[in-house]
Amino acid sequence: MKANTTSSPNDASASLQIDAIINQTADWRGKKLAQLRAIIRAADSAVVEEVKWKMPSKPMGVAVWCHDGIICHADVLKKSVRLTFHKGSLMEDVNELFNARLESSSVRAIDFHEDDTINEAALKALILEAVRVNMFNKGKTTPA
């Protein structure tokens, strides 16, 4: 079965759908996802929230944040909340936040565990780096 990558006109707004994903996860992972969402939105006022990849194993879909392309998406896993950056291999991770998917040829990810403290300033910088990479790939900026 092909995953649905777009929302139909009858679907709730992406923001409300992400609220539902957070509320569905009533333990620490929902709280962590809500924290990550707030940091992403604070880092980039032009970020657009979307929900993609609805399928039987994830009927609610996956929370996605975009600015001139996908910045990152969040997966709620059994023991962590994973924030995956789609162009992570092209990004400069000066604060060394990436701790998962390090061998991938394109993506990089950060697994956040229950007791992990989120370095908000570093994560905001990484979000802005992802936006810079997206804009550069679209010819809108020059590399840093």
Protein architecture, described:
With 144 residues, the protein is of the alpha+beta class. Helix content is 31%, strand content 19%. It has three helices and five strands, in the order H-H-E-E-E-E-E-H. Strands 1-2-3-4-5 form a five-stranded antiparallel β-sheet. Helix 1 packs antiparallel against helix 2 (28-43) and helix 2 crosses helix 3. The radius of gyration is 15 Å and the shape is globular. The model is unreliable at 1-11 (pLDDT under 50).
Helix and strand arrangement:
Layout: H1 14-24, H2 28-43, E1 48-52, E2 62-66, E3 70-76, E4 81-85, E5 108-112, H3 120-137
Antiparallel strand pairs: 1-2, 2-3, 3-4, 4-5
Helix pairs in contact: 1-2, 2-3
| Oligomeric state of the chains in view | single chain
Radius of gyration: 15 Å
Anisotropy-based shape: globular
Q: Report the mean per-residue pLDDT as an integer.
A: 90
In helices, the fraction of residues equals 25-40%
Short summary of the structure?
With 144 residues, the chain is α+β, with helices and mostly antiparallel strands. It has three helices and five strands; from the N terminus they run H-H-E-E-E-E-E-H.
Keywords:
144 residues, five-stranded antiparallel sheet, single chain
